[in-house]
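INFO  loader      accepted 1 record
INFO  loader      residues=231
INFO  predictor   begin
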Amino acid sequence: MNSQAANAQGVAALNLPSVQERRSLREQVTHALRAALVAGELRPGIVYSAPVLAAEFGVSATPVREAMLDLAKEGLVEVVRNKGFRIVGLTEQDLDDFTEIREMIEVPATVRVAEIATPEQLEPLRRYAREIVTAALAGDLIGYVEADRRFHLGLLALHGNRHLVETVRDLRSRSRLYGLTALVQADRLFDSAAEHEQLLNAMIAKDLPLVAELISAHLGHVRRLWAAGRV
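INFO  predictor   done
INFO  writer      dumping tokens
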């Protein structure tokens, strides 16, 4: 992280994910910025310039501008002419609406996956469930969000409907988890993190009523964490 570049622009130093040489720079930066948005590292209302973010990542400004334009198309940021990009904020009603939609989609979809998936298909998700707990205990916000994304999207991928996965991915991106830093400091993330392995165990056991109860409670728990983090 380049704190000098951030301070020169009057912006607090950011805890951004590292950029690695596996995908195109544009894809890597888009992914890293989206993760930072979801974790609340990039704050609503603040204008971030492409050169400053590029210095944080150690890349040129071009892939950062391209990535931000991709995020603007998704409604996550807005262009501020001659200045950079402003993070779009969310209202409490927005968060309630996103939670309602996720419950309508993910509860029946998760129960369906529990019906059709084999233990051999479900068991690999345990790795991500445990990574979520490890990240929560370590206060690793980006790691928490990334492992959580892999768990839930990997689970839904077993449904066999790619449009379902894309829809939930979009909802997760839009309902970023503001306030996670305060929750980590208060040791309030662990309970939510531990719910993933409980859900996985119920799915492997094919206890469908318990699966429905756990995924519904988990989504409600996540919404309460948002509310607590915004206080």
